[in-house]
Amino acid sequence: MTVVRKDTQLAQAVDLAREAAEEIAEAGTVGEHLGLVMEGERIGTHRFVCTARAYRGWTWAVTLARVPRSKHVTVCETNLLPGEDALLSPEWVPYAQRLAPGDLGAGDVLPYQEEDPRLVAGFEATGEDDVDQMAWWELGLGRARVLSAAGRSEAAQRWYDGRHGPRSEVATKALAPCSSCGYYVPMAGALRTVFGVCANEWSPSDGLVVSLDHGCGAHSETDVTTEGTDLVPVPLVDDLAYDVLDPDRTAGSSAG
User: Fold this and answer.
1) How far is Cα of residue 125 from the mean position of the Cα atoms in its chain?
2) Residue 144: what are its φ and ψ, rounded to 5°?
3) What is the per-residue pLDDT across 1-25, written as a single tens digit (0 to 9) for each?
4) How far apart are CA 53 and CA 86, in angstroms?
5) What are the residues whose beta carbons fall under 8 Å from the beta carbon of 58, sequence distance 6 or more?
């Protein structure tokens, strides 16, 4: 690694560097001089503390240079650069990648993804008989692409792990699974072996995809448990129709 010798003319041009920083900085935000870093032969960068409250940890960097055999120093560029503890904005993420489920609203349109691993061409043979048959049938409906094996697997895992799979709280407390419920409507295609749709308006899963081993309290063949109750009425005493006798007085009268 070549060590660049410190340039005396550049090192002495602190005031010039400060003036250059103050020309673009907010008034009073160019602070203490932090030194000179040589970038190459006859070119170096002066750094100053940035005292702006919104830019804690940032520094003003002013690069100076001079031509050979000349003492005249000129300003090349002035920048505000982050330090090790500077507050930085998050790394920019494209819209299509930061979109989360539930973000899409009425009138919103997602960007077209030409290379979507979850889809394949509707007429493309996959090697799976049931999938290929579905693809040809769906092609007749005019769909250019259908779910790929990866797309089906991703959706199935998401549904199975979600609120309408077997491990949700409502499913673990259910008396019977959806597979034996009269309101369970099997799906078409390869996913019918694991999933269907609930058609019971009283169920929290009505109109939603549920797994065969999901369940809820609205199962068509279950019933509430009736607890036993005491049906013998408590006897009532009518004080208006009968005289209440004092047992002690009754016993004394009999003895006489």
Assistant:
1) 35
2) -75, -30
3) 577 888 999 999 999 999 999 999 9
4) 11
5) 50, 52, 80, 81, 82, 83, 86
